[in-house]
Amino acid sequence: MDEARAIGTLEERVKAFGRSLHVRHVDAGSCGACESEIQALQNPYYDLHRVGLFFTPSPRHADLLLVTGPVTRAMERPLRAAYEAMPEPKIVIAACGPACGGGIYGRSYATLGGVDRVLPVDVYVPGSPPPPLSLLHGILLALGRMEQKIEHTQHTTGAGR
């Protein structure tokens, strides 16, 4: 999938979602390389603001949580707090090799391993660091997962009838 097609698909999915998509990024202990790739999503080349994707500093306004790096023991509690503050449905993306499974850090005196040892992960985006196109693909997958969770909630609670 090329960049233009991915951005077009993202734009369609966000419009189908019915509002803009807000992402809360948490660095749980990464080396910093993933953050530069995430920042690239906001530059004029990708310009995801025009399709309705925004990064937010507050988890209370976030539709999905994007986590990079292995979860350090110092970041376990803040990561859980960010997740708990998010509204339903909660979607989590583990972005980078260390976030997906601990990477070269694994489990140690300083790290707990991958994000899935602390939170339920919906989408894994491997790579160290994952390129912006892979991050876009992960966000698209997360939107699909979010739609599934919304439909499931409406079906089980009877909402929307």
Secondary-structure topology with pairs:
Elements: H1 3-17, E1 21-27, H2 33-40, E2 53-55, E3 64-68, E4 71-72, H3 76-85, E5 91-95, H4 97-101, E6 111-113, E7 123-125, H5 132-157
Parallel strand pairs: 1-2, 1-3, 3-5, 5-7
Antiparallel strand pairs: 4-6
User: Fraction of residues in helices?
Assistant: 25-40%
Task: Summarize the helix and strand pattern as letters.
Answer: HEHEEEHEHEEH
Low-confidence segments, given as residue ranges, are none
Question: How much of the polypeptide forms β-strand, as a percent range?
Answer: 15-25%
Order the strands across the largest sheet as they lie in space.
2-1-3-5-7
The tally of strands reads 7
How many structural domains can be distinguished in the coordinates?
A: 1
Q: Would you tell me which CATH topology applies?
A: Rossmann fold
**Rg on CA atoms, Å:** 15 Å
Number of helices in the DSSP assignment: 5
Looking at the overall shape, the CATH architecture is: 3-Layer(aba) Sandwich
| Terminal-residue CA separation | 37 Å
User: What is the molecular shape?
Assistant: globular
* Class from secondary-structure proportions: alpha/beta
CATH first level: which class? Answer: Alpha Beta
Q: Main β-sheet, in a few words?
A: 5 strands, parallel
Overall description:
By secondary structure, the protein is α/β, with parallel strands linked by helices. The chain has a single domain, classed as Rossmann fold (3-Layer(aba) Sandwich), CATH 3.40.50.12280. The chain is 40% helix and 17% strand. It has helices at residues 3-17, 33-40, 76-85, 97-101, 132-157, and strands at 21-27, 53-55, 64-68, 71-72, 91-95, 111-113, 123-125. α1 (3-17) runs parallel beside α5 (132-157). It is globular, with a radius of gyration of 15 Å.
